[in-house]
Amino acid sequence: MTPRFGSARDLFEAVREASRDASEIRSRLSRLESACGLRAQRYDAPSSRGAAPDAMRAVDIYVDQEERLRRRQDEDYELIGLASSVIYGTSEDGRGGIQALLGPRQADAMWWRFCAARPWPSVADMVGASESWCKGAVRVALDTVDSYGWRAVAEGVGVAEG
């Protein structure tokens, strides 16, 4: 996947939206399952009072909708995974990522804000810092990604090694 975004902010705002979308999809799939009554679906013989109902119609509708939603959810998770690699790096030895360049608290502020799509008060609670510190840390991290490029930051190439 090679995303094309004008800036790091554009990339990470898309990630934030993908995180919200993935969460909504999980909820929709749960509601869809309940609405279709799949857990309680009966496959009895047709009644003698008329035409046989299409017992599989609800299942077919569910399967089609589920497939579309899961495909979109997979795309959301792929983008979130890319962002996580920019935040925490891609190498096993700890090279790369915002974490290596700026530190773990800055990386965590980025992850909670964008990958988890949390509001600022929640980000601050999760990171153990003030909202203003978190906002500043995210601003600096976004500038850093813009300066080096998301791929260099993720891979820890050249100057993007911590």
Task: List key phrases describing it.
single chain, 162 residues, mainly alpha
How would you summarize this macromolecular structure in one to three sentences?
With 162 residues, the protein is mainly alpha-helical. Helix content is 69%, strand content 0%.
Molecular structure report:
This protein is an all-alpha fold and 162 residues long. Helices cover 69% and strands 0% of the residues. Helix 1 packs antiparallel against helix 2 (57-88). The radius of gyration is 22 Å and the shape is elongated.
Q: What is the topology?
A:
Blueprint: H1 8-36, H2 57-88, H3 97-102, H4 104-115, H5 120-127, H6 131-148, H7 150-155
Helix pairs in contact: 1-2, 2-4, 4-5, 4-6, 5-6
Question: Which percent range describes the beta-strand content?
Answer: under 5%
User: Total strand count, please?
Assistant: 0
Number of helices: 7
The secondary-structure element order is: HHHHHHH
Rg (C-alpha, Å): 22 Å
SSE class? mainly alpha
Return the average pLDDT rounded to an integer.
84
Quote the distance from N terminus to C terminus: 25 Å
Major pleated sheet:
none
- What coarse outline follows from CA principal-axis ratios? elongated
Helix content: 55-70%
The poorly predicted ranges are 39-43
